[in-house]
Design a protein that fits this description.
CATH topology of the largest domain: UDP-N-acetylmuramoyl-L-alanine:D-glutamate ligase
CATH superfamily of the largest domain: Mur-like, catalytic domain
Strand content: 15-25%
Number of strands: 23
Shape: globular
Number of domains: 3
Length: 489
């Protein structure tokens, strides 16, 4: 594509002296080569302007910058006010504005983004609206999975993924929109069919993220200035902040009968056919009976949000309710199917608050014991280990302490820190640093009616050991053990 075509819609100073053919847009100087345009991104840690010479040495001759660069005479330098915003508009042009041809559902909030995004994707796919997803677990569409570095990828990657999804037949995309993604301009220029607000609680406060809760909330709210419909959790008081500058149609959800979409008669169900939730959903004046094999009251909120978003994308709610009957979210309160008389649940809970939340949820389904298999990330704060140990030690019948991305730290050192807190809380524990063996131990002691919670890994399919991602699947561990047990019975 010609440089002049890529720069359409981007304000800049300087002359395009040579309207060259551009083969790609680069912002990592190591990936530059002849025919690429290098965008100098300014960040908190690194300044892309300092790597312009390196990009030139690797073959780039066109540069987008916020200030003048000292480069050889054959380099074309176009000056922009904000290089991140420029990257977004340039990327949209380079990939022929794919977002304009897709129904983009943006989901933001402290908790529930990943589950809600997956619910939206699965509902739309099941009801005849091909939908991709981009978020914490990467990008997925038409059975194809691609890794991403951030919850909300950089604008170039986003537009590239949108183009891939569009070319593969997708009509919609469920996109997790983080506060940092909004702050750093990764979704600038995108008009959302619907924006979803799940909830707001303290998170991402620090020198490299947000100054305080006020700034955190502000950047979340920016999403709702860019959407045609706003689906908001009115049971969370922060919805007033989210809706402050919202000019779009607002769809409220929660458990109050005054809302556009609300839930009543919520029940936790555990039987031979299902462990999950059922409730009456009233949406826009009509009643829908919801039954879904995902446990927890918090998932009622995620389902309500997903239903509102799906309706905005043109989905029939009758069909959506039917699709929810067989829903499954990888690594989020995920029930692993086995023939055992007990349940095994995989969840991403990796700190004290999230672990407490999932265990409290499981208490509603408790018939026997709760056995929790967990660890804590190596090389990180010991306070997290203590929090998780106190929660599990006070709430679970048995704690099986093991490795969880130990990296360069000895797993037993992490286990010892957690064990101190478990003992302090009056709990029982068994230590096994090999996570596969720890899971097998939990399965071996489980009895009828027990609940085994594998916490911390969730959707991750690896263990981080000595700086390397070693393939590891909890589901495979469970299946291998159950097959072996079946063969030996």
């Amino acid at each position: 594509m010609k440089l002049s075509e890529i720069m359409k819609g981007t304000a800049y100073s300087g002359l395009i002296s040579d309207d060259v053919e551009i083969t790609d847009i680069i912002y990592d100087s190591r990936k530059a080569y002849e025919g690429t345009v290098f965008v100098c991104l300014s960040g908190l840690k690194l300044d892309g302007h300092k790597f312009a010479q390196s990009a030139y040495d690797n073959g780039a001759r066109v540069f987008i910058a916020e200030k003048e660069l000292t480069l050889p005479e054959d380099a074309q330098v176009l000056i922009v006010e904000n290089s991140r915003k420029a990257l977004g508009t340039m990327s949209a042009s380079f990939f022929s504005h794919p977002a304009q041809k897709l129904k983009i559902i943006g989901i933001t909030g402290t908790k529930g983004k990943t589950t809600t995004a997956h619910l939206v994707q699965k509902i739309l796919n099941e009801t005849g609206i091909p939908c991709g997803i981009i978020g914490t677990v990467g990008a997925e569409f038409n059975g194809e999975k691609l890794p991403t570095e951030n919850t909300t990828p950089e604008s170039y990657e986003l537009n590239k993924l949108f183009r891939l999804m569009l070319d593969k037949g997708c009509k919609a995309v469920a996109l997790e929109v983080s506060s940092l993604g909004l702050k750093h301009g990764r979704v600038d220029g995108i008009r959302f069919t619907a924006g979803v607000f799940t909830n707001l609680s303290p998170d991402h406060i620090g020198p490299l993220e947000h100054e305080d809760m006020s700034e955190y909330a502000y950047w979340k709210s920016v999403l709702f200035e860019r959407c045609d419909n706003a689906v908001m959790n009115f049971d969370d008081e922060a919805h007033t902040i989210m809706s402050k500058n919202c000019a779009s149609r607002i769809i409220s959800y929660g458990v109050d009968s005054s809302y556009d979409i609300y839930a009543k008669n919520i029940e936790a169900v555990r039987n031979e056919d299902m462990m999950g939730i059922t409730f009456d959903c009233f949406a826009f004046g009509k009643l829908y009976r919801i039954s879904a094999p995902i446990p927890g009251t918090f998932n009622v909120y995620n389902i309500l949000a997903a239903l509102g978003a799906a309706a905005c994308a043109g989905c029939s709610l009758e069909n959506a309710a039917e699709a929810l009957k067989n829903i499954k979210i990888s690594g989020r309160a995920e029930i692993v199917e086995t023939d055992a008389p007990f349940e095994v649940i995989i969840d991403y809970a990796h700190n004290g608050l999230s672990l407490k939340s999932i265990i409290e949820t499981l208490y509603k389904y408790k018939q026997g014991r709760i056995i929790c298999v967990f660890g804590s990330v190596g090389g990180r704060t010991k306070e997290r280990r203590r929090e998780m140990g106190l929660v599990a030690g006070s709430m679970c019948d048995m704690c099986v302490l093991t490795a969880d991305n130990p990296d360069f730290e000895d797993p037993m050192s992490v286990i010892d820190d957690i064990a101190e807190a478990v003992i302090e809380a009056g709990g029982k524990y068994y230590a096994e640093p090999d996570r596969k063996k720890a899971i097998e131990y939990a399965l071996s002691i489980a009895e009828k009616g027990d609940l085994i919670l594998l916490a911390g890994k969730g959707h991750e399919n690896y263990q981080l050991v000595n700086g390397q991602k070693v393939p590891f699947s909890e589901t495979e561990c469970i299946n291998e053990y159950m097959r072996s047990k079946s063969n030996n019975d």
